[in-house]
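Progress note, project year one: complex with pyridoxal-5'-phosphate.
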Amino acid sequence: MKFGTKVIHAGIEPDPATGAIMTPIFQTSTYVQASPGEHQGFEYGRTQNPTRTVLENNLAALENGTHGICFGSGLSAMDAILRLLEPGDEVISTDDLYGGSYRLMTRVYGKYGLEAKFVSMQNPAELAKQITEKTKLIWIETPTNPMLNVVDITAICEVAAAKGVKVCVDNTFASPYLQTPLDMGADLVLHSATKYLGGHSDVVLGAIVVKDADLAEQLYFLQNAVGAVPGPQDCFLVLRGIKTLHLRVERACQNARKIAEALERHPSVSKVYYPGFTSHPNHETAKKQMRDFGAMVSFDLVENNFEAAKRILSGTNLFSLAESLGGVESLIGHPASMTHASIPKEERLKVGLTDSLIRLSVGIEDVDDLIEDLEKALENG
Ligand SMILES: *Cc1c(COP(=O)(O)O)cnc(C)c1O
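Model obtained:
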């Protein structure tokens, strides 16, 4: 099946009991057994839920993996991956990653003896030198948030494989429509399905996809043993959202390109971060590993301070000032005070995350209206 067919059909069958074409929401905590141990594969709602299983199988197909494992949020999915590690182990991660991921690695798992090192990953040979016998996991986010650097997944996976280190790619920003990291050598893919997969800003959910049965078994164990599972209604909403994933992301990417070009021309804008520009330092890598360049655009202002950014952030009408991304509606955000507030200022500034940096999650509205909205805010700013 091609991608546009998988989103609608992979792992999904009409309900055998009723013929319902849509996967039912199995709103149940337990399942009746005919006699002790004699059941239909479902015993208790934390351990198994049929709506969740359909979503897990669909996600496995979209990422070209064999197993999907769903959680109550992207961060609880990440939590399960970090629980695979032991005290004293080290994870090496991209240096401008999602603030919540940084917080989980440092402030939650630091206490349990997990060591986290943050590096740029722009140079695979440099990364190879950083790997020690303590390194057990490499964590890649690409495109990165909010600087939109692109990491060469294949090159990093080659370095990691040579040293026997597993690689997880947080594929939230790209979605499986744009890139499938398991095909490039990654061992695990993480999703905040809250973003593009759900796509309608109405659900929080997380998922992991792997292609190795042993790894899947360890993660299913943690899913059940820790219990951070999503409810069936949330699984339904993500399944529903995924049905239009390809159309939404395709349109959002088209809109993002036009918006990036309009911003690039604007005199109040000092810099536009968008991997689709040939001048972007990772443009060739993005072209090689992604189907399009994504729908996230960040930009900085000539007037480089929080006050200037604030005027623009509160000056748009169609772009709503909000955390999150990946929904049908366009959002505008201020990483320094919102998504990345938990990252120390010196760390932020090192990667270009200034007080005036603005991040856009471009939606699927009419692009002319979106550009007009931004231009109006920039003029008033
Ligand atoms: C939102 C996000 C997460 C966390 O996911 P939640 O569903 O909010 O827990 C992780 N990684 C990235 C890149 C994100 O954007």
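The chain has a mean pLDDT of 96.
The chain has two domains: 3-242, 245-380.
No further modelling is planned for this target in the current period.
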